[in-house]
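STRUCTURE:
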């Protein structure tokens, strides 16, 4: 039976993400940091996040992240869990209140991004493994303390909330994967 970190590494390897340099950076990090699934790994740690598409596949659900004060996909820390798809699902449910989401594997995107210093927490990186989740009929959100708001955003993004190239890349990857289902 593989360890939790070995399970996470398998998911990184199996990802359909195109950027081999990012994949290798995450794999190298995991090799050098046996505690990569834990927040106590102060230089960085693995996270799982979710691109949530509505049933029509015409809208994505974004949250206004309370700490980072940016519109992002739901996601969060692995906290020792090696199944990063389940991490993405757990975090999506906690942050949005949605139930009945369908997890699509393998991961559709990989990203490494900087997290700024905050209080006693030093600056570090999140090595994010990103999954596609499909919503069912229930699209009513009930956000928790980690989000200031949650909104279904049309792919034409009339409010300009899809600001980063990384988020646009994730949406593109999600739509491409959803088209094959």
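SEQUENCE:
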């Amino acid at each position: 039976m593989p360890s939790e970190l070995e399970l996470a590494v398998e998911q990184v390897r199996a990802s359909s993400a195109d950027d081999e340099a990012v994949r290798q950076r995450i794999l190298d990090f995991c090799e050098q940091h046996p505690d990569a699934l834990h927040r106590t790994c102060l230089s960085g740690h693995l996270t799982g996040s979710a691109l949530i598409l509505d049933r029509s596949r015409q809208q994505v659900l974004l949250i206004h992240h309370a700490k980072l004060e940016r519109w992002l996909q739901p996601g969060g820390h692995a906290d020792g869990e090696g199944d990063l798809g389940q991490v993405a699902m757990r975090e999506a449910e906690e942050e949005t209140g949605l139930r009945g989401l369908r997890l699509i594997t393998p991961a559709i995107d990989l990203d490494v991004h900087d997290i700024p210093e905050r209080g006693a927490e030093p600056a570090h990186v999140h090595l994010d493994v990103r999954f596609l989740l499909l919503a069912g009929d229930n699209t009513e959100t009930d956000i928790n303390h980690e989000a200031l708001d949650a909104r279904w955003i049309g792919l034409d993004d009339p409010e300009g909330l899809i600001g980063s190239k990384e988020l646009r890349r994730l949406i593109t990857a999600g739509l491409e994967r959803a088209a094959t289902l």
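REMARK: The chain has one domain: 4-178.
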